[in-house]
Amino acid sequence: MAAFEKIVTSEGHLIDSGLMRQIFDVIISDGGEFQILNFEIGKTNQEPSKANLKIMAGDIKSMNKILLKLSTLGCVIDEESEVSLKPAPADGVVPPDFYSSTNHETFVRLNGGWSAVENLRMDCAVVVEGSKASVKKFRDLKKGEQIVVGLGGIKVVPEFAERDRADFAFMTGEISTERKVRLVVDRVAEIIGDKCKRVAVVSGPVLVHTGGSNGLIKLIDNGYVQLLLGGNAIAVHDIEAALYGTSLGIDLSTGKPVEMGHRNHLRAINEVRRAGSIANLIKEGTLKSGIMYAVVKKGLPFSLAGSLRDDGPLPETITDMNEAQDDHFRLLKNIDIVIMLSSMLHSIAVGNMIPSRVLTICVDINPAVITKLKDRGSLQTIGVVTDVGLFIHMLAEKLTGS
Ligand SMILES: NC(=O)c1ccc[n+]([C@@H]2O[C@H](COP(=O)([O-])OP(=O)(O)OC[C@H]3O[C@@H](n4cnc5c(N)ncnc54)[C@H](O)[C@@H]3O)[C@@H](O)[C@H]2O)c1
Predict the structure, then answer these.
(1) Which of 342, 350, 366, 386 to mutate to test the pocket of ligand 1 (most atoms within 8 A of CB)?
(2) Whose CA is nearest to atom 12 of ligand 1?
């Protein structure tokens, strides 16, 4: 007989989403055994299935490893038990057995019922106050706050495995052929085409270098984008292109370096700093085109996070990293879709801030960026391995016809 046993419950589209197979794989590959105690199969395509499993393991370490993975797959451990809480021992510090949040919709069992966890994001603590549970970053915790510990009384809904994602399922691998890029473009265009969804674009400066600015400007002008996130460089090189026709000193119309062009991005930064802000540079009539021009003219929110590489920076660039993270998180709250364009740093950072219900499309020439995003837990990501200029051009053409 196994030394350790635990009963877990799993509910949802267990068979057609492939979840049941994943659950069995986890148990076996981590050295455990299972016994199905009860399995009620949903009788229609709407009705969920429910399974009760007895998990057996030879030692506590294997059992804990299995339970941790099963919890992320939506299994509830000790279905009837209340969530366990311990006080934060100091400001910004959690008890050693703290529960680390995931990006999936999560519920905790409080006073006999399930309470939805608010402010979802991965790799944080869950704090309970009365009947309310919410995610908090370590730096925001106060001594004595009630922190969720262990795995009991927690229900995670692994969105990526839900059946309503199935129409994107064929795309969740890395995609690089032109035909498949076209398929993703068509599908994304279909989803954002009716403008019911709120779309955020996260972009690095490569978009400008590759001549993709016009595509993004068309999407902004036509109301397909509701938020722009990035770093200092996307705005710097965009404004450089608008003022001097170069990006990193390369003439965007000829692709050739211009004399003293390497100074142009610094001249652009200097102009914004002189005016006091991007909005002022537009107001005085100096900045008349480009991505930032389109964003400001449309009244869209934007947030630029600083980095160790930045020149200047622009007055708008937030150089306090905690503040930049908080600003991004606040702006991302009601976003349904994030389109990530050629920035490893900013794509992965934003991936860490959004719940898995947010459809994520990541476009990068390097497949490792998409792999990293998924390894960090952003399994809902549709990866498109292609040139960003080409992708955004195709998307804008599909949506705006030009
Ligand atoms: N002058 C400046 O202030 C300045 C200049 C550059 C970067 N930065 C800052 O440095 C940080 C990191 O910059 P980053 O996000 O550009 O770098 P990054 O390395 O994080 O990401 C660049 C990504 O672009 C991808 N890429 C390259 N060519 C591509 C193409 N043709 N199509 C699609 N993808 C392509 C790469 O594979 C890479 O993943 C940012 O915060 C940025 O603002 C500042």
Answers:
(1) 342
(2) 345
Tell me, in angstroms, the distance from the centre of ligand 1 to residue 234's CA.
9
Average pLDDT, the chain: 92
Rounded to two decimals, the pTM is 0.91
36 — pLDDT class (breaks 50, 70, 90): very high
Residue among 174, 262, 307, 371 to mutate when testing ligand 1 (max atoms within 8 A of CB): 307
CATH number at residue 175: 3.40.50.10690
Same domain, yes or no: 212 and 113: no
Domain that holds residue 136: 82-151
In three state form, how does the secondary structure of the chain look?
CCCEEEEEEEEECCCCCCHHHHHHHHHHHCCCEEEEEEEECCCCCCCCEEEEEEEEECCHHHHHHHHHHHHHCCCEECCCCCCEEEECCECCECCCCECCCCCCEEEEEECCEEEEEECCCCCCEEEEECCEEEEECHHHCCCCCEEEECCECEEEECHHHCHHHHHHHCCCCEECCHHHHHHHHHHHHHHHHCCCCCEEEEECCHHHHCCCHHHHHHHHHCCCCCEEEEEHHHHHHHHHHHHHCEECCEECCCCCECCCHHHHHHHHHHHHHHHCCHHHHHHCCCCCCCHHHHHHHHCCCEEEECCCCCCCCCCCCECCHHHHHHHHHHHHCCCCEEEEECCHHHHHHHHCCCCCCCEEEEEECCHHHHHHHHHCCCCCEEEEECCHHHHHHHHHHHHHCC
Ligand 1 centroid to residue 183 C-alpha, Å? 26
Residue 333 in any domain: the answer is yes
Whether residues 104 and 183 fall in one domain: no
